[in-house]
Amino acid sequence: MGGLRGLRPPAPAYPAIQTEGTLVTQTGLAAYDDASMAAARDIYYYAAFSYDCAGNYSAGTTTSRDRSTSYWLGDISPTGSWDGLITLTDLSAFSLTFGKVDGGSGWNEEGDFGPTDDWGRFGIRCRTTWWTSRI
Fold it and tell me: Are 42 and 34 in contact (CB under 8 A)?
Protein backbone atom coordinates (compact mmCIF):
# COMPACT_ATOMS: atom_id res chain seq x y z
CA MET A 1 0.00 0.00 0.00
CA GLY A 2 1.38 3.42 -0.96
CA GLY A 3 1.24 6.71 0.86
CA LEU A 4 3.18 9.82 1.78
CA ARG A 5 5.38 10.37 4.79
CA GLY A 6 6.61 13.82 5.88
CA LEU A 7 10.02 13.95 7.51
CA ARG A 8 11.89 16.73 9.28
CA PRO A 9 15.04 16.89 11.38
CA PRO A 10 14.59 17.01 15.18
CA ALA A 11 14.46 20.37 16.95
CA PRO A 12 17.38 21.46 19.12
CA ALA A 13 17.33 19.95 22.60
CA TYR A 14 15.96 21.76 25.64
CA PRO A 15 18.25 22.02 28.67
CA ALA A 16 17.85 18.74 30.57
CA ILE A 17 19.48 19.90 33.85
CA GLN A 18 19.85 23.31 35.51
CA THR A 19 23.51 23.74 34.46
CA GLU A 20 22.89 23.34 30.71
CA GLY A 21 22.21 26.35 28.52
CA THR A 22 22.40 30.02 29.45
CA LEU A 23 20.90 31.25 32.72
CA VAL A 24 18.19 33.78 31.87
CA THR A 25 16.88 34.54 35.35
CA GLN A 26 16.67 33.23 38.87
CA THR A 27 13.50 34.60 40.40
CA GLY A 28 10.69 33.90 42.81
CA LEU A 29 8.12 35.32 40.39
CA ALA A 30 5.49 33.13 38.76
CA ALA A 31 6.19 34.66 35.32
CA TYR A 32 9.15 36.27 33.57
CA ASP A 33 9.50 38.20 30.28
CA ASP A 34 12.86 37.60 28.62
CA ALA A 35 13.48 40.97 26.96
CA SER A 36 17.05 39.95 26.09
CA MET A 37 15.86 37.67 23.27
CA ALA A 38 14.91 40.69 21.14
CA ALA A 39 18.61 41.18 20.37
CA ALA A 40 18.63 38.45 17.70
CA ARG A 41 15.95 36.95 15.46
CA ASP A 42 15.90 33.32 16.48
CA ILE A 43 13.96 30.50 18.11
CA TYR A 44 14.61 30.27 21.84
CA TYR A 45 14.23 27.06 23.85
CA TYR A 46 13.48 27.44 27.58
CA ALA A 47 13.40 25.08 30.53
CA ALA A 48 12.46 25.98 34.10
CA PHE A 49 13.83 24.26 37.20
CA SER A 50 12.59 24.81 40.73
CA TYR A 51 14.86 24.45 43.74
CA ASP A 52 14.51 24.24 47.49
CA CYS A 53 16.42 25.89 50.35
CA ALA A 54 18.95 23.05 50.38
CA GLY A 55 19.82 23.68 46.70
CA ASN A 56 18.13 20.56 45.31
CA TYR A 57 16.80 21.12 41.77
CA SER A 58 13.77 19.57 40.14
CA ALA A 59 14.10 17.35 37.10
CA GLY A 60 13.51 18.80 33.65
CA THR A 61 10.13 17.68 32.34
CA THR A 62 8.07 18.30 29.21
CA THR A 63 5.69 20.50 31.21
CA SER A 64 8.49 22.82 32.41
CA ARG A 65 9.79 23.83 28.99
CA ASP A 66 8.67 25.93 26.05
CA ARG A 67 9.98 27.74 22.99
CA SER A 68 9.42 31.12 21.43
CA THR A 69 10.40 33.23 18.46
CA SER A 70 11.69 36.75 18.99
CA TYR A 71 9.88 38.05 15.91
CA TRP A 72 6.64 37.84 13.93
CA LEU A 73 6.72 35.51 10.95
CA GLY A 74 6.27 37.77 7.93
CA ASP A 75 7.95 40.84 9.48
CA ILE A 76 10.57 41.17 6.74
CA SER A 77 13.15 43.92 6.52
CA PRO A 78 15.63 44.29 3.68
CA THR A 79 17.50 46.87 5.81
CA GLY A 80 17.58 44.85 9.07
CA SER A 81 15.24 47.12 11.06
CA TRP A 82 12.10 45.22 12.02
CA ASP A 83 9.08 47.00 13.43
CA GLY A 84 7.06 44.08 14.80
CA LEU A 85 4.25 44.70 12.29
CA ILE A 86 3.23 42.99 9.06
CA THR A 87 2.59 45.79 6.55
CA LEU A 88 2.70 46.48 2.80
CA THR A 89 6.45 47.03 3.13
CA ASP A 90 6.81 43.43 4.31
CA LEU A 91 4.51 42.17 1.56
CA SER A 92 6.64 43.98 -1.01
CA ALA A 93 9.85 42.41 0.35
CA PHE A 94 8.15 39.01 0.39
CA SER A 95 6.98 39.34 -3.21
CA LEU A 96 10.59 39.97 -4.30
CA THR A 97 11.61 36.69 -2.62
CA PHE A 98 8.71 34.58 -3.87
CA GLY A 99 9.87 31.90 -6.30
CA LYS A 100 13.58 32.42 -5.59
CA VAL A 101 15.89 29.49 -4.91
CA ASP A 102 17.29 29.05 -1.39
CA GLY A 103 20.71 30.74 -1.35
CA GLY A 104 20.35 32.06 -4.91
CA SER A 105 20.29 35.58 -6.27
CA GLY A 106 17.55 37.69 -4.66
CA TRP A 107 16.94 35.13 -1.87
CA ASN A 108 15.84 36.55 1.49
CA GLU A 109 15.63 33.93 4.26
CA GLU A 110 13.10 36.05 6.19
CA GLY A 111 10.66 35.54 3.30
CA ASP A 112 10.81 31.77 3.83
CA PHE A 113 8.47 31.73 6.83
CA GLY A 114 6.48 28.60 6.14
CA PRO A 115 5.66 25.95 6.86
CA THR A 116 5.40 26.16 10.62
CA ASP A 117 5.49 23.22 13.01
CA ASP A 118 1.72 23.40 13.58
CA TRP A 119 0.80 24.86 10.16
CA GLY A 120 -0.59 27.95 11.95
CA ARG A 121 0.35 31.62 12.04
CA PHE A 122 1.65 31.39 15.62
CA GLY A 123 3.73 28.26 14.94
CA ILE A 124 7.49 27.95 14.95
CA ARG A 125 9.04 28.22 11.49
CA CYS A 126 10.68 25.01 10.35
CA ARG A 127 14.28 25.96 9.67
CA THR A 128 14.82 23.11 7.27
CA THR A 129 12.75 21.64 4.51
CA TRP A 130 10.02 19.13 5.16
CA TRP A 131 10.94 16.24 2.92
CA THR A 132 8.16 14.14 1.51
CA SER A 133 8.90 10.61 0.47
CA ARG A 134 6.68 8.01 -1.11
CA ILE A 135 6.14 4.86 0.94
Answer: no
